[in-house]
Amino acid sequence: MSPATSWLTFSQNFARLLEDTEGHDLLITVGQEPLVKSFKAHSVILRAHSPYFHRALSKEWARTEDGQMVFYKPNVSPSIFRVILKYLYTGVISVEDKEGGFLLSLLTAADELILPELISEIQGFLIETQSIWIQENFYYVLDFAFTNDTYSTLQTYCMDSICADPHMLFSSDYFYCLDNKILRSLLKRDDLAIEEVDLWNYLIKWALAQNPPFVTTDPENPKNWSPGYFATFKKLVDGCTSLIRFTSMTPEQFRERVWPFHELLPRELCDTIMDGYTQQALQKQCGGQEKTIMLMKIKSTEEIFGMYISSVWNGGNSRTHDSLMFSFGEGRDTREPVISRIRTGGYELALDRGRKRGMEELEVFKISPKTVFML
């Protein structure tokens, strides 16, 4: 007999035990008037399969009436508990004909009764069979998913849907009621199909909607805010500002949209961002440094390249034999980099003193002093 056949036989035997309730020692009453129902069960089976019942039906906690153990669960409906009870006895989840709202209620009950396998199965079934219902009730499902971290599969599904079509959320009135936890989860995503400057604008609008300023003239201008309101506003966005990728903005976008709110950001972050956009700042950071490594990405092509300068970068021309430039293409495969070495006796570095080249075409990952580099 195969393991699958053995399991099926055991499941059927326990199903019969549930139906005829022979030898039961427990009466469970669930629901609220007028929908109340009592179920006969075997405490040993429930305690074996549910940590919640293992504790609730222990000698220290169990209640007895007329020589029989009793348990009351008014916050779980009879229809929900019937599914759970069958699952505890047989391992079978009978929800094929249930709609999305029922499945969410089942998830809530399964979480309270500490049934992680059931939670996982229901989330997968909900996503697979109720995708239309989810889309029709998307914001309700989104809020529900983030009420509990055990609904991580449902959270990921909702986040994937938003990232694929962010304007579905950001252009809706619901966005301004969005929970801070959900907003932070979105900002952490790398695949959110929306410009970073637009994310910043939405963040400001979201925070203003949570606590509008008591001013009538240009309320979105922080110059018109009182010190008290500014402090309140800063608390609202504190967990979000660090998740904005400011280096993906152009200098103009940063100056026009972010700089008016620069007091919301750490001073070091502002200095780094503003400095990072100028050729002078690059020379200041790297000038006089020995054994320098720099990584950059061309914004228009996504090509990642860099250079290693072995001698001191002094702003002039110098000779070297072991400096090099390298490229990882678009960064999808770093196993075959293209390396260009300096010709024997060639110049390592020559700063362009002719036409000024804007740093906005580059994304400098980070300039960080290190004592040891491994190549």
From TrEMBL:
InterPro entries: BTB/POZ_dom (IPR000210), SKP1/BTB/POZ_sf (IPR011333). Pfam families: BTB. PROSITE patterns: BTB (PS50097). It comes from the Eukaryota. Residues 24-97 form the BTB domain. This is 14435_t:CDS:1.
